[in-house]
Design a protein that fits this description.
Elements lengths: L1 E2 L2 H6 L1 H8 L4 E5 L2 E4 L2 E9 L2 E7 L4 E5 L3 H16 L3
Antiparallel strand pairs: 1-4, 2-3, 3-4, 4-5, 5-6
Length: 86
């Protein structure tokens, strides 16, 4: 599964804009977010669709982000995870 291309990230721009509002997140490269100095969230694409890898613990968990509902769920997961960051 390859990292999302710039044209793929264009289709996620509304989601990326919502993520950029979160003060704890730093976008090191387009669509690649860190919390403090640790990778936290990035996006992938493959024939099955678009996915976000979100660090909820020591490992990343993969979430589909193909529909508005899936994107809303990801935002809730991000907010929950950020609430646990100290």
């Amino acid at each position: 599964m390859k990292h999302a291309s710039p044209s793929t990230l264009d289709t996620l721009e509304e989601l990326l804009a919502a993520l950029r509002i979160c003060p704890a997140l730093k976008e090191k490269a387009r669509g690649v977010f860190y919390v403090k100095s640790r990778a936290f969230l990035h996006f992938h694409e493959d024939p099955a669709g678009l996915f976000a890898d979100l660090r909820l613990a020591a490992e990343f968990e993969r979430f589909p982000v193909n529909t508005e509902g899936e994107r809303r769920l990801l935002l809730r997961k991000v907010q929950d995870a950020l609430g646990k960051v100290r």
